[in-house]
Design a protein that fits this description.
7-stranded antiparallel sheet; two-stranded antiparallel sheet
Length: about 300
């Protein structure tokens, strides 16, 4: 989340400047091609993910790939800083996922403190914690560019709370539903929580899904706390879980808040080919808000 980073203000300023230079600010869906170009990056047809191409690639690029793979990382995207080239794994066919990775690499390119350190001889010995921070900053840069700061939040605010608003944000911006759920939850003024689950159940008795990321608005964290979601969620404790491929919409549920009091919440579950996406919120009285449709894919 942007507010968790010491570099938040700088990232916001840099991304807004880049949006303006790309003439992409306020244009929907977000003009990723124009942003990449404004960042002075290119995307060559010969991909560094092709082993034949990598074998003849400049040493700095082949070394970087070897280092990442040597740490057991699945490399999805590469920025060749010297050539200003972005390479995306061609096996990733989901366009929104590819675009997010493209903007992630743009983040590594445009954040000046990352660029300065990357060219230093000591970069390979930088502490893992610093490299992890760089990845967070690049992810956040990608999100700030894709959702154009608070602009996409304003789009979603026109709709009633629920996954329909997330879908509207995704359709407007061109971002994936997963990224849109994260953004919606993190930036909403009301108590909202977004959860990403594995697409298929781990067990059927009881029905159990593995949990990945959790995103929460500040007001959700204040009311319900943080860090208490288990790694495995089962239908005994979370009755809105099922094996059905039909979305769960408007499921009434109750949660304890940090004071031990019951709070009525509403749950939507959206099933995609990649994940089960869960949105939980405290229902509010909403006047003059549009109701967005949630379509099954």
């Amino acid at each position: 989340m942007l507010d968790d980073l010491d570099s938040a203000a700088k990232i916001s300023s840099i991304t807004e400047d880049l949006l303006q230079r790309a003439d992409a600010a306020g244009q929907w869906p977000t003009r990723v091609d124009d942003i990449v170009q404004a960042a002075e990056c290119t995307e060559p047809g010969a991909s560094a993910f092709d082993e034949a191409v990598l074998a003849s690639a400049p040493s700095h690029l082949s070394k970087a790939v070897a280092l990442l793979r040597g740490r057991g990382k699945k490399v999805r995207a590469i920025l060749d800083r010297r050539a200003r080239e972005i390479h995306i794994d061609p096996s990733i066919e989901h366009s929104a996922r590819r675009d997010f990775l493209r903007l992630h690499e743009v983040g590594h390119k445009v954040l000046p403190w990352q660029q300065d350190l990357a060219y230093a001889d000591s970069f390979d010995t930088v502490a893992p914690s610093v490299k992890a921070l760089f990845e967070r900053e690049a992810n956040q840069t990608s999100a700030e560019l894709f959702f154009q700061g608070q602009r996409a939040t304003g789009v979603a605010a026109d709709f009633r709370m629920g996954f329909g608003a997330v879908a509207a944000m995704s359709e407007t911006t061109g971002a994936s539903l997963r990224a849109s759920l994260r953004r919606y939850a993190e930036t909403h003024a009301k108590p909202v929580c977004g959860i990403v689950l594995e697409s298929s159940a781990r067990t059927r008795d009881p029905i159990t899904f593995k949990r990945f990321e959790v995103s929460q608005s500040g007001t959700w964290t204040t009311r319900f706390g943080d860090g208490w979601w288990p790694r495995m969620l089962n239908a005994q404790s979370f009755p809105w879980l099922s094996l059905s491929s039909v979305p769960v919409l408007g499921y009434p549920w109750r949660l304890h808040d940090i004071n031990g009091e019951f709070v009525d919440v509403t749950v939507d579950v959206r099933i995609t080919p990649y994940n089960r996406l869960v949105m939980i919120w405290v229902p509010q009285r909403e006047i003059l808000k549009r109701k967005a449709k949630v379509l099954q894919t």
